[in-house]
Amino acid sequence: MSDAASLNAVTEANQQKPLLGLFADGNMPVRWQGPKATYHGNIDKPAVTCTPNPQRNDSVPTLAQMTDKAIELLSKNEKGFSCKLKVHQSINRITLRILVGKLARRSISTKPYNGRWNSLKRMATRWS
């Protein structure tokens, strides 16, 4: 898998058919763009405006889409499953001003969880 379309097309993943998604050659493109951070930039310089990153187009799956697909595929296992989500902001991306970084991380980090905890609780109850 290398894009959102191939992720959506997957219907099965298990020990006999393992699945690996590689959606970027390096770091996935961040959702927002802004100027590079500078020393005291949040104090000495005017507020910045973030803009959507054109490299983060519909071919790049969101964390929410990847999470939904993982839960969809893993929930087929009657013995249950363990799913660990990890969001990592790489060091070379932390060059954005503090606010841009916080907004981007919060925007990306919270979306997969909205409304999904109830689904996970129902599945956990079913297997307990």
UniProtKB/TrEMBL annotation:
Protein keywords: Hydrolase
Entries under InterPro entries matching the protein: Alkaline_phosphatase, Alkaline_phosphatase_core_sf
Keyword Hydrolase attached: yes
Entry EC number(s): 3.1.3.1
Pfam families referenced in this protein's UniProt entry, alphabetically: Alk_phosphatase (PF00245)
Top enzyme class: hydrolase
One of the record's GO molecular function terms: alkaline phosphatase activity
Highest taxon above the source species: Bacteria
Name the record gives this protein: Alkaline phosphatase
Lineage: Bacteria, Pseudomonadati, Pseudomonadota, Gammaproteobacteria, Enterobacterales
